[in-house]
């Protein structure tokens, strides 16, 4: 059953109370210039933080548009890469490779992540040491650098025991392992946020624990779970390093297949173009960034739309 | 009256889920199965009434701390039985042990024997899920599911596999809960858009949609205004024609108004004065408890001198 974890909530509550109190006091009190200056400074600080985040994003998008605009055409999507004719070269195999890898990642992380979260929240007896060990491990895994997962993928997935070879499937498994902790943590958070009274109400009607989880808890937690999946997928799309290790080659001209060797993905392809000195390849790389942004945007909009359909309010 | 009676007899076939429990715990043959619940006596002196629950020396503890100690009482068929007593005396604990909701608290342990129509509901082969199908529960705080009004009511029948036209089942349950006229035009709206009193009646509708035999109610009106409370009390008196009801309440007038039997529990110090637990002080006809209680502590409590 869901236990309420007090610390984050109380900290947040305290922050909210402090914020509410200080704003009330600033309205009512002639509490001296010091306070008012402090408030101004704090507000300025918040605005600065927000401005930096937005400027960074805007600068990148504007740069990519200016730099990549000469190459924005259907060629970019339909053509394969070419070093001989960079002015018509495109990202077709890379886009397909990315879609294969991301598709595989989603197919793996949703059932595994939700399954693990359901086990930890609804079934695991927290007084048992092995369950606490699993929890601790998941927390720590979320902080392991991605290159380590690349090595793991190379050693265990590309080579024996899984022996998949350097194929998109191996990349998908590797990236899935990398982002799984994020999904598990987010899904646990979402499941824990479902009020225990919902579970009690369902069980009191004679529903089994499984029916309660499947038909009450998971639908109610769906929007939170999807948020976790969105974050994980956004990270997975951009990963290049572990994919390079598990065999995403930087230059592939033919369409990939899920279990066939020789694939590339958008970030690895962009990396390949960007490190070439010639001007044409720089332009191509910038255009690739735009494709990647568009892909992320499309996938996220779909996920957000899906999440809003499941949005719950208590 | 005769009309009512024939209706009674033809109405419910033997309660299948209840029979499951009996078979599972192997007591089926010990009980007189020729007596159907419809024919159970529900009026007259207590010793002649049919028993729904028989509690014998029931104690409940949470991880070694005893919350309820040594309760023995009979709860009668198609009666409203009220549990009253000061906060912390174990009313909710006792109530939740009647349909095995206490199983959800891993540290909770029930001792003694708790028979439902003669069958031990804590018997080794009894599935708590089956118990809860027959013995439903309404909680203190209305807890509708975050779904439409229709789906709230339909959830129980769907999961427990009750056959029949779902629209009819939903309408019937909402009618019996006195909610149909208020919600019939907005069955697809989210249940969270209803008032608290409506939500609580929805929870009652949800509970009767699975056709239980007993309804347990834990302070069902404590969050409601007097008008909603009165509606739910009327509803209880109607439901009593078909179900046995056990209700926990802090409202003396409510207990006096609706219940047939009243049990008074109180927190007692153990002999060595080290720990405290709830004990059953007095259990009798409501009229007797409220006019001529046998124990001075009961009198003090209901007259507002303690607790
Ligand atoms: N889940 C639990 N874990 C441990 N102890 C519990 C739990 N639930 C109740 N208790 C303890 O059991 C005792 C009886 O509690 P219970 O909730 O049954 O009282 P109550 O009579 O319903 O009180 P109230 O009128 O305030 O609802 C209390 O001492 C309480 O601390
Ligand atoms: Mg209580």
TrEMBL record, chain A:
Residues 95-302 form the ABC transmembrane type-1 domain. Keywords: Cell membrane, Membrane, Transmembrane, Transmembrane helix, Transport. It comes from the Bacteria. GO terms for molecular function: phosphate transmembrane transporter activity. Its main location: membrane. It is found in: Cell membrane. Signal peptide: none annotated. One of its GO terms (biological process) is phosphate ion transmembrane transport. GO terms for cellular component: plasma membrane. The chain crosses the membrane at residues 41-66, 94-120, 141-158, 164-187, 283-306. PROSITE patterns: ABC_TM1. InterPro entries: MetI-like, MetI-like_sf, Phosphate_PstA. It is a multi-pass membrane protein. Part of the binding-protein-dependent transport system for phosphate; probably responsible for the translocation of the substrate across the membrane. Belongs to the binding-protein-dependent transport system permease family. CysTW subfamily. This is Phosphate transport system permease protein PstA. The gene is pstA.
